[in-house]
Here is the input.
Amino acid sequence: MLKALTDRFGLPVSVTILLLLWFWLIVLVILPQLIMIDYSFRPNLLPAQMGGPEDGYTIGNYQTLANNDIHRTIFFKTIWSSILVTFLTLVVCYPVAYFLAQLASTRQAMLIALLLVIPYWINEILRTFAWYLILAFQGPLNAVLLGLGFIDRPIRFLSGDSGVLIGMVYAYLLFMVFPLYNALESLDPNQVRAARNLGAGTIRTHWRIIIPHAKPGIATGCIMTFMLAAGSYAVPALLGSPGSRWFTQIIYNWFFEGGDWHMGAAYAFVLLILCIGFIALVMKVFKIGLGDIGR
Amino acid sequence: MDSRVQLQQLSMSFGDFTAVHPLDLDIRSGEFFSFLGPSGCGKTTLLNIISGFLTPTSGTVTIGGEPMASVPANKRPTSMIFQNLALFPLMTVAENIEFGLEVRGISKPERRKVSDRLLELVDLTGSGDKRIDDLSGGQKQRVAIARALAVEPRVLLLDEPLSALDLKLRQHMRSELKEIQRRTEITFIYITHDQGEALTMSDRVAVMSAGRLQQVDEPMTLYQNPATPFVAEFVGENNRIAGEVVGNDNGRVQIKHPSLGVLEGISTEAMAPGTACSLYVRPERLRLVGEDASPVNRLQARLDVVNFEGAFLMLESSIEGLSDPLKIQTEHSTMPASLTKDHPVSLVFDPADALVMPESAAEGGGHAQGLD
Amino acid sequence: MSAQRFFHYTIRVYLVVFFLYMFLPLIIMSLATFNDSRFPTVWPWRDTTLRWFGELWADTAMWEALGTSVVVGFGVLALAVPIGVSAGLFLSTYQGRAKNFYYSLMLSPLLTPGVIIGISTLIFWRNLGVSGGIGLTIIAQTTFIAAYVMLMVLARLQRFDRTQELAAQSLGATHAQIVRRILLPYLKPAIITAAVIAFLQSFENYNTTLFVRGFDTTLTVYIATKVRTGLTPAVNALGLIMIMVTVLAAVIYELLRRKDLDKAGKGT
Here is the structure.
């Protein structure tokens, strides 16, 4: 490893590269995760109990999660809602990415890319806050719906899960659009023409030619969106109500309200396992490797 | 200035694959020397060893009498011109040329003097401030040459530098390169798979195949007296007739072909009767004759193709019993107008123009893959 | 009208709706800044006012949070860019068997939820006696922002013609000279882009920061707190300013990039 580097960069630069790399991977990435896992298997003890008979490994923290009906329900709701968010985002983004990659002229594509990039750079909190204003009980959305006569009474969007779902789709759109676009861009338009020439309709062409080609992009987009949704704290905190809590909010509470970091670590590890599981599942379903992600 | 390059027992292996079998070679000071061979023959590997980019598995490289084993690439008295030129796109033309001097810590005014002189040498006076992307292919070529010359190498290594140019420019650059070499008296080591380039520019050419030197000689000698069947077939056009030795006297060899009968040629080595051999005769040595010509080395053939090549005609005619058609090069004037496709023709060649070589000389003619 | 034309027509209508969905919330949020209402809203419109900018200006907590965000942003930039560049150079050089493993490991912070990066950093450093604050925020954010830098540097390195390095070597350059004169100038555009993106990522981060901030408040955390407690249109004023600054930065960056491309001829 050092030889390949020194052959190219010489010794001083190579050593610098390796030191920075190891600092990142070991001190910032690997060790904190390992310590967190270790933490999650230990009980929360008073200083006096340290080193005592109870100071050992335990799965008690995980049993708490398994036995707590409310936490369990919120955990499964988080999974289900994140999958729903991922699916909705895919559906919303696919036509945009397809147009951008295959149909748009160069000028159109530049304009659309710019229009997409601008909201991307705006703070997630601000974007979520914007929806908070729109969905407010006395906000513009209710005013419009009332004015058009669709509803008789204003709707409380912010007291159920619907506000959270809308806000998440909005917040994580771009993590779906760009991977999709990258994958679709490499599709030779002649393949689409050939499929049409052979008599395939629009839907069949998409189903048999375009979507299979976009698989790595779909997989990357879904992984990113699911991870962001399941791990989101800002959106449910801003757009949700006490009745629509998210798993991350329980983790936060263990840390800063319950004061039990060990419990919080266990819950966090469960969330991490969930995300890893989802990534593994998507990679298996789409038959792609980790190396295809992020390229 | 002594700029001899000596290779002693030099070899290179990559894992199980031997790219260069042990070889010895002495390249003279100030010589234009070419390595010629198909891709994968090991010539680029040799160049990379001389330049110091690769460390040989065994053997030594000596330049001007100094062994190079412990000298890294950036300290060797060589500089290299790459197939893709590898100009630095973010630097101007002058900065490219001056790069080698810059890294040696030479002052800017001094550098500027050198690059001005070199720009003049390669006919690009006044282009020093241009961007690389604004140059044509031929101009880039010249910048690459100037950049390599700026560090005053004793040996210039050229890795097929003309292959990206179109035919006209390529031919023009050949004479320019030769001219620059003559003026600078630097040893040029040139590698190419294009025999035209190798034969026109070089003082001597080493023909390589499958990691072995086949023959090292002046271009004329390579063409007229190929040492191995590989050289005979690779350098210039040649017709090959396989047979078996039946007679042998004073350098004259008779061979027997199962359907063409006995043919006569010359050979530099004595071959016992029964030896499997090949007879080579160049297309320009085959003559079309009437029915009444001498019966020695006369072949009856059928005309297949007449190719107009500008200055001459190249004919192809098939003979029963030979797998490949014979190629005949002929002048327009000696070609009877009545001769057309499918016409029977008689061909003869002088035994002195036909070279007979034993098949066993084909050693090393196998195909190497995976490396160039 | 053929089915295909119909399809193309539909997709254009869809695009219009899509971009309304993208921009309407931002426009409404911006408009609400100018409504003279205690609660930020565009309906009903009471009176047009600029007073919320004044209130924002007078908010010392906001200024303090902005200061913290800038310090954290530069800290992350100073740490994540060298790490990301090193990682990119490493991946483009090392061809060994474990290359895929290293790549996956370096990518993993991007696939890990932000809250978990925050939590693990918090726990790990507490064991070493370091508690939450600006320093820990820089460390936690660097963990995943370095991966973004790595991806950008790697993408540019993949288009790099390595014979340039051999050419420089053959002309007598040392390894250090090649890095300084050939490699870094080539990487410069990617490094600048990565630095800008690293700063913005840091500036807008919430999920990770939340766990490691200690008693320090970044601007993003400040906004989130304001939204939940004590919401006034001053938050909108801040949002509007941030949107303007980001759009301006994006446009300037884009213009500079184009100018650079023009200078480089057909682009390199």
